[in-house]
Amino acid sequence: MTNRIFKTLLCTLVIIAGVCCFAAEQVKPKYIFLFIGDGMSFPQRMAAAEYCKQAGLAPLAINAMKYHAVTTTNSANSFITDSAASGTAIACGTKTNNGMIGVDPQGKPLVSVAKAAKKAGRKVGIITSVTINHATPASFYANNISRGNYYQIALDMVNSGFDYFGGGGASKFDNKKDKKYCGNIYELAEKAGYFVSLEGKKFNEINPSMKRVMSFGAVGALPYAIDSKEGDLRLADFVRQAITQLDNPNGFFIMAEGGKIDWMCHSNDAGTTIKEIIDFDKAVSVALEFAKKHSSETLVVVTGDHETGGLTLGFAGTAYKSFIKRISLQRCSRDKFNHKLRELSQKNELTFEAAKKLAAENFGFEFVAGGKAKKLTMQLSAAEEKALKKAYNVQFPGNKNRKDARGVYDSTFVSAVIRLFNNKASLAWTSGAHTALPVNTTADGVGAENFTNMIDNTDISKKLKELL
Ligand SMILES: [Zn+2]
Description:
Blueprint: H1 3-26, E1 31-37, H2 42-54, E2 67-72, H3 83-92, H4 113-119, E3 123-131, H5 135-141, H6 150-159, E4 164-168, H7 185-191, E5 194-197, E6 212-218, H8 235-246, E7 252-258, H9 260-266, H10 270-293, E8 298-304, E9 307-308, H11 334-346, H12 352-363, E10 366-367, E11 379-380, H13 382-395, H14 413-424, E12 434-435, E13 439-445, E14 453-456, H15 457-466
This protein binds zinc ion (ZN).
The site of zinc ion has 6 residues, from helix 9.
């Protein structure tokens, strides 16, 4: 090799190496969004997507994202995880036991991607539609051996130094019985420099001149999307506010959780779940809109922490036909329906006829006399009506309240109505708890190509930390 050829080769190698280094530098996004649909796996996403299609609504943004990864969710001590262990895995990249928050199975504190982002100079925001010290958001800022230590977890929130907390307020925020009690959480937060807005009262006062913000839209969890009123603050509002508060030259990390998807999957209420996912999708869309304007510097990742309820997209009674569009007949959540029944009961106005009327109004049932119901319609057969009557007698013997126990095998009237309605919409459930079904992780933007093939939930944290 002549000297000249050698020099040319060397120069080429240096240029290639330079380009490679430059390319490696480029994959670090300035803005990172991580969305978690609690209890949201493939069936939940597909049920919502198919409902949107059949009902003529816009397709889900989360399912149109470019990269998809099948994601396993087991915890350190169980094939079926809870939200504490899966939240810890997604946040910290380490498997732990069910019930534990931000610590390993031995109780050793772990470092979450949110804490790593803060340390790296980014601003950090944590948002949820349930209470802010619930397991999933807690995994990003707290370290505690038990998810049930709500007060202590809220103390970790105050001491986190994170820049923005939004969504549902803290539970047990003034729990004087906690052995670490040292004052009302919100008062402590103000002392620590947070501007605190409760029940959305000061939502519109919040502006970027405020360094630290707690912006809560309700005392506890936000209302279900299906039950929410005009003007209620939704997950999307908090994501929008967080972006305004946190945008800065060093970038940000925002985690936003759709927590009530899980709650209604526990209750086997498909209609409320689907509306909750559409609401969650709107929050993700806010981030995707932002990403469009900052396409060379934004990463959006959407995952679930586990499946809840064992939802299936088909039912024996409806065979190969799909009637998911019927979900639009549902007017309120299971909780609200139960509440309406209780109200009638308390006024001594509840009879089986009144309960039937309420079920017809809120779920589109048609009661026909003499068992002449047409198959595969919303008309109830004599057997279906008889089953409802039996369940009514279980829940309201002598018009006295019996607690709605929830879950797929529960025998109350509310459960029977929900089950029958879901089945008529060609949907069914196998559990009132979580299942081990993997979830779908989708991603768009800078570094999104890291989220493909089959990954574990711990990989999400590991990959995100590399991208900081
Ligand atoms: Zn759950």
